[in-house]
Design a protein that fits this description.
The chain has 20 helices and twelve strands. With 491 residues, the chain is of the alpha/beta class. The strands form three sheets. Strands 4-3-5-1-6-9-2-10 form an eight-stranded mixed beta sheet, with helices on both faces. Strands 7-8 form a two-stranded antiparallel sheet. It starts with a helix and ends in a 6-residue tail after the last strand. 43% of the residues are buried.
Length: 491
């Protein structure tokens, strides 16, 4: 075994550890030997092959470090799957956070430069061996057989099976094992507005120190206006919205989604409702959740491309207000409006709503202020013009980390991510469900789905279920895991 090959490998491992410490603040000791073995085997390859190997390590490391700098955790294969779905959005977010991007780039760049210097200094003295490639492949297989996720170069150790599952469109079957029959004719129009990345703790309505919800604050004392903290179904839009529209009690009931047996649009149509799904987000953003929301049961489906030219990711939510006001609500309707809301990088608001600072946290507050305007205007319109009994419900798909624990974004099981608002208002409607909602300490997305089923006419009563609460991860198949919340404490 050549001395210089060992020296080059030890030097490379040391550089890895320094870079890891600068980004992660720790050293992953369990993987040092395998990392050393990997580079040692690579060092016996031809110099050009070794150079390509080093470039590959640099690119993987840069992605891993960039991800950790923003999300505060190591990247997994599930995150790569999400990246392939939302590539442009992801880069848009990262480029907006230049400091995060720059830190990852500088550390990776210094690491790569040092690796190249070591390669240039020792490269000619490295011993080549025809078995080098075979040894490298063998070590990679050993690594993939384990569970080494800390170094981004080992990402493929994670399972890929969910990617194929998610890419298949959910089948629809008419021969349900147990179909749901309406118990009564639903009378009320139902308006469900789904926000984006909004935590209730950033709303003045729930005690936030900044005046981000002046419109809702003026409405909160009205009769039949109720607001509560809420636990979301999941940590990502791709999972949370489909689950809201296909209520399941726990992650082991995925079959109900694949069969649309409890799909709210299907059941609304079955009981005589006209159905709407209007989103201010783009087709490319919502294309993966479209497979599970029940497209064939929606009478009117629109995204931002249908409402505006040049839509890239989304548009300001004022257009949803215009669309809502143009609907004929004298006909029995089930309406779902999906907002752009607080979608990163938190710029979906008109200039006149930029009352707070223009840094990241200030922009988030500005976007909440605009969401408040849109929501309160919808409620006012219902109050002034609704002739039919009308139920209005607002919640958000998930929350957002805003620097807590040095983490940003969502897609993680943190309280800031699964804590969302619930806002409820009714017009021309009095029933016993109101008292049940008022008495509840908090709500959940599952409760919201069951509440909608009640107003659609598929249950005779409603009572919030506040035990055995599940929060799903980023994969509707459950591969990203889930958590079960017990003894929930709401601040």
């Amino acid at each position: 075994m050549n001395f210089y090959n060992i020296l080059f490998s030890l030097t490379s491992v040391l550089l890895f550890l320094v870079a890891d410490y600068l980004i992660f603040g720790t050293i992953f000791q369990k993987e040092i030997f395998l990392l050393f073995l990997l580079i040692l085997c690579a060092s016996y390859m031809h110099r050009y092959s070794l150079f390509v190997f080093l470039i590959t390590i640099f690119l993987f490391s840069f992605v891993g470090y960039l991800f950790y700098s923003y999300y505060g955790r190591s990247i997994t294969i599930n995150d790569i799957v999400l990246f392939t779905r939302h590539t442009t959005e992801t880069f848009d977010t990262f480029f907006d956070r230049r400091a995060v991007f720059l830190k990852a780039f500088v550390v990776s760049g210094l690491f790569f430069a040092a690796m190249i210097f070591a390669f240039a200094t020792l490269g000619k003295k490295l011993k080549k061996h025809r078995m080098g490639k075979l040894a490298l492949i063998s070590v990679i297989f050993i690594i993939l057989g384990g569970n080494f996720k800390n170094y981004s170069v080992f990402l493929l150790a994670s399972s890929l099976k969910d990617y194929a599952l998610i890419e298949k469109e959910a089948p629809y079957q008419t021969n349900f094992f147990s179909d749901i029959e309406a118990l009564k004719e639903g009378e009320a129009n139902i308006i469900l507005v789904i926000g984006e990345s909004l935590r209730y703790s950033k709303m003045r309505l729930f005690g936030y120190e900044k005046d981000t919800t002046p419109g809702l604050d003026r409405l909160k004392n009205k009769e039949n206006f109720i607001y509560k903290p809420c636990i979301s179904y999941a940590t990502s839009t791709d999972v949370s919205v489909p689950l809201l529209l296909n209520p399941i009690e726990n992650p082991k009931q995925l079959r109900n989604i694949r069969l649309f047996s409890r799909n709210l649009f299907r059941l609304a149509k079955k009981n005589g409702y006209r159905t709407y799904f209007i989103s201010s987000q783009s087709q490319r953003v919502i294309k993966y959740m479209k497979k599970f929301i029940g497209m064939r049961f929606i009478d009117v489906f629109k995204t931002c491309e249908d409402m505006s030219d040049g839509c890239k990711f989304g548009m300001m939510d004022g257009k949803l207000l215009e669309e809502f006001k143009s609907m004929d609500l004298n006909k029995k309707s089930f309406v779902v409006l999906q907002m752009s809301g607080q979608h990163s990088p938190y710029r979906y608001y008109p200039e006149e709503f930029g009352r707070f600072s223009e840094d990241v946290l200030g922009r988030y507050d500005n976007s909440v202020l605009y969401t408040d305007y849109v929501i309160s205007e919808i409620i006012k319109y219902i109050e002034n013009f609704a002739k039919r009994p009308t139920v209005f419900i607002f919640t958000s798909d998930h929350g957002e980390m805003l620097g807590e624990k040095s983490r940003w974004g969502h897609n993680c099981f943190e309280k800031e991510v699964y804590s969302v608002p619930f806002v409820f208002y009714t017009k021309n409607l009095e029933d016993k469900a109101l008292k049940e909602i008022e008495n509840a300490h908090f709500m959940t997305h599952y409760n919201i789905s069951e509440l909608i089923l009640y107003y659609l006419g598929y249950s005779s009563s409603f009572s919030p279920k506040l035990t055995d609460i599940y929060v799903n991860g980023t994969m509707i198949t459950g591969e990203d895991g889930y958590i079960k919340l017990e003894n929930v404490i709401i601040d």
